[in-house]
Amino acid sequence: MLQRDKAPSIAIIGAGLSGLCMAIRLKENGFSNFTIFEKAGDVGGTWRENTYPGVACDVPSHLYSFSFAPKPDWSKVFSPGPEIQEYIQQVTEKYDLRPHMRLGAKLTGAEWLDGSWLLAFENGDKVRADYFISGMGGLHIPRYPDIPGMERYKGTAYHTAAWNHDHDLTGKRVAVIGTAASAIQLIPEIADKVAHLDVYQRTPNWILPRPFLEYSDRMKRLFGRLPLLEKLHRLQIYLMFEMRFPLFRRDKFFSRRASKMFTKHLEEQVKDESLQAKLTPDYPIGCKRILASDVYFPALQRDNVELITDPITSMDESGVTAGGTHRAVDTVIYATGFKPWDQMEDVTITGKDGLDMRSYMKGGIRAHRTVAMPGFPNHFMLLGPNSGLGHNSVILMIEAQVGYIVDALRQARAGGAKVVEARADAADAYDKKLQHDLEGTVWAGHCKSWYQGEDGRIYTLWPWGTRRYMREMKRVNLAEYELTS
């Protein structure tokens, strides 16, 4: 059983960045009776799962780390995945979180029963907890394409998020399906190893320059000796990224400037006009995730690489057919992204009066203040609906959410309340305002992306800048919640 003392027992699901941040702040605020349940054998979440060649963060390192746990010796401006995973492990040790962990504990169900949560795990364990906090995240469940005949393919096939490190690509004929974030990192890493590479592009992306800048040893030492200098550097990065936000509100000046950056970058790196045309998006910049790379366009122009923009019609035992042409390959790599909300596919969460979370979400994927839902008492969600960003570091959102949840628990404890539940009227009003604000963004109605659901509802992104989010999440308004003793 989870209960260890008289303090409320808290179950955190997931040992990625959000779950670990939650645990650290709980510990600092006197909530020591918590356990982190992690399905895998180690911490890390997204950065543990994604190990494909070239994996890196597209947010600068000093901003993609906790404000309270800086790392002065980041190797590069944009850190590679293994270094981020190492940072996560270091944070885990620094805050002594391993005694609070149960690894290999995959949640299969959670039910609000008799005033607390009953959690069920794949290994058969059942645990009671007063509070249930989800930090499962959304960028770890691979999305596979729906291609007729793909199950017939007899070569080696895998997703970038399930990289097959035992499979040597050297000298192989390879097909990469997809050209978004993981693909533009992966393709330059393997293009010089394979015999031939077919790159299947459905939609071109807005790709801006990203030089691979490294921090000098001198700069690392200065950051270590002068913490204020590191904080100022982080602030500089934050302000630079935050200044991009007007682009997503369809600001013409910022849109023109960003478009010119893309065009200049493309024309400098790609001289062939027909290839330029294939790589130029026909939708507003920012409508899909903006990418950055200095090596992707050159990789596409290698003699052994072919960019294919014809729609894929089928696969068979030996390869892929697109535009009436069949191309045989030894290996197929799916760089087709993730299912940002499908962590609920194999988890059944049942709130009050038998309310199933899947049924609740059928009315629109939503959460009050992005973290709570009426009908699900004492349940909070990190990186929940509408807390993603298109322009800045999601770490900022995580820290704001964690602070908000800690404040809710603190106020509940001070007032003697044992149950905290979002009010339905407050949640509805918040969601209506949120969706109204999203109507003025570049994401609304201009292109189909993973930002939207099948119904066109934008359920992943926050419609304003991070300063507004942090201000709104600074303190819980208890009038928006039902508190019971």
Entry keywords:
single chain; five-stranded parallel sheet; alpha/beta; 485 residues
Structural class: alpha/beta
Strand order of the largest sheet: 3-2-1-7-19
Helix content: 25-40%
User: Quick check: average pLDDT?
Assistant: 93
Tally of separate helices: 13
Contiguous uncertain segments of 5+ residues: 1-5
Shape: globular
Distance between the termini: 22 Å
Q: Gyration radius, to the nearest Å? A: 23 Å
Largest sheet: 5 strands, parallel
Count of DSSP E strands?
21
% residues in beta strands: 15-25%
Structure explained in plain terms:
It is a single chain. The chain is of the alpha/beta class and 485 residues long. It contains 13 helices and 21 strands. The strands form 6 sheets. Strands 3-2-1-7-19 form a 5-stranded parallel beta sheet, covered by helices on one side. The protein has a 5-stranded parallel beta sheet with strand order 8-17-9-10-13, with no helix packed on it. Strands 6-5-4-18 form a 4-stranded mixed beta sheet, with no helix packed on it. A hairpin with a 2-residue loop joins β15 and β16 (325-328). α1 (17-28) runs parallel beside α11 (394-414) and α5 (217-225) crosses α6. The chain is globular, with a radius of gyration of 23 Å.
Write the layout of secondary structure elements.
Blueprint: E1 10-13, H1 17-28, E2 34-38, H2 46-49, H3 81-94, E3 101-103, E4 107-113, E5 116-121, E6 126-129, E7 131-134, E8 156-159, E9 173-177, H4 181-190, E10 196-200, E11 207-208, H5 217-225, H6 227-242, H7 252-269, H8 273-278, E12 291-292, H9 296-300, E13 305-308, E14 312-315, E15 319-322, E16 325-328, E17 331-334, E18 348-350, H10 357-362, E19 379-381, H11 394-414, E20 419-422, H12 424-438, H13 466-472, E21 481-484
Parallel strand pairs: 1-2, 1-7, 2-3, 4-18, 7-19, 8-17, 9-10, 9-17, 10-13, 11-12
Antiparallel strand pairs: 4-5, 5-6, 14-15, 15-16, 20-21
Helix pairs in contact: 1-11, 5-6
